[in-house]
Amino acid sequence: DISPLLKDPVAFRTLIDLLEDHVRASFPKIDFIAGLDSRGFLIGPPLAQRLGIGFVPIRKKGKLPGPTESVSYALEYGKAELEIQADAVEPGQKVVIVDDLLATGGTMCAACELLKRLKAEILECLVIIELKSLKGLEKLNSIPFYSLLQYD
């Protein structure tokens, strides 16, 4: 639960500072931050703003206007679909995907699939919290990954 972090302006600013420092140190060239519905929308825009780049939303099915790419994926309790606008990124553009949490990895893996379909270069998947015991990182295969906090 990141709600206490969001309520504390000093803590939230510190979070964005840490993420900004990591991204700047790791990637001298980046075109977009892509955020996952919905908590990635809370982290992604301020991070993108700090970096002077754009933000791309990856949303639950049926929420985006215009033509979209869609992918279905399995959840622990059923299935879900994510979408990205078909013109969100150009082939070869460099993207970091952000979310609050990596658990089983299904949502993050689906987001990676959408960006690959648009031929974006995924630089990294970036989260605040990783639940290591759920082994979500294994689903990401060789895509670089970074988490600020890890819990077993």
Automatic annotation (TrEMBL):
Keywords: Acetylation, Cytoplasm, Glycosyltransferase, Phosphoprotein, Purine salvage, Transferase. It is found in: Cytoplasm. One of its GO terms (biological process) is adenine salvage. Its EC number is 2.4.2.7. The keyword Membrane does not apply. InterPro entries: Ade_phspho_trans (IPR005764), PRTase-like (IPR029057), PRTase_dom (IPR000836), UPRTase/APRTase (IPR050054). This is Adenine phosphoribosyltransferase. It comes from Oxyruncus cristatus.
